[in-house]
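Practice problem 4.
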């Protein structure tokens, strides 16, 4: 390594050369500076030197229903299904599909039972953004052919009141429910719960396979 026209060798001379190189290298000063010259007063004191700091903390919200645990979001859209099947009294007997199938029937009106599948889903909300609100939006109504069922027939119950489930509206966006924070400042939220979806089956419907989509949104003011 050359410095100042001379040759630096390994060992003590190399260390001296490094110090000399450092002394001549340019230096970036990020803070203010102050210098006090010779004085008869002891001790010698400079003026104040200020240094500014900036710290940026970004807000985030992690929200998932079904697939994908913290910190990785899920890559699969969860599906919930319900089968509404009649039961004929006085067996009770579940009729089989087809024509001219024999079955014992007392003549009383059949009952329609609802069998859910995949209707219990884990839910997770994490955030440092203060109050978190959740709401549901009907993207596609329950439809088969020209027949529709209001999406409000789907209800949700939560295993934890601190992470409530929003009401699914018949159409459009529903009311917002708030998730309770987990720290005393009200800024941090870490909540887990299980949401159970049910079909109300409150009215008679035309037979068919109905499909629809609901989206859920987590937001901070």
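Answer key:
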């Amino acid at each position: 390594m050359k410095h100042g026209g001379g040759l630096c060798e390994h060992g003590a001379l190399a260390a001296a050369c490094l110090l000399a190189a450092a002394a001549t290298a340019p230096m970036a000063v990020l803070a203010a500076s102050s210098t006090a010259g010779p004085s008869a007063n002891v001790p010698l004191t400079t003026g104040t030197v200020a240094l500014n700091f900036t710290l940026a903390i970004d807000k985030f919200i992690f929200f998932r229903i079904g697939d994908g645990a913290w910190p990785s979001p899920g890559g699969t859209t969860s599906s919930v299904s319900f089968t509404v099947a009649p039961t004929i009294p006085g067996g009770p007997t579940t009729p089989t599909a087809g024509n001219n199938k024999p079955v014992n029937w007392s003549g009383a009106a059949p009952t329609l039972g609802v069998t859910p599948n995949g209707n219990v889903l884990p839910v997770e909300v994490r955030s440092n953004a203060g109050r978190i609100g959740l709401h549901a939006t009907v993207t596609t109504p329950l439809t088969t052919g020209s027949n529709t069922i209001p999406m409000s027939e789907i209800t949700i119950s939560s295993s934890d009141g601190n992470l409530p489930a929003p009401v699914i509206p018949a159409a459009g966006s529903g009311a917002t429910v708030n998730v309770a924070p987990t720290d005393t400042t009200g800024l941090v939220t870490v909540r887990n719960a299980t949401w159970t979806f049910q079909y109300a089956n409150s009215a008679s419907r035309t037979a068919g396979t109905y499909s629809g989509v609901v989206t859920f949104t987590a937001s901070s003011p």
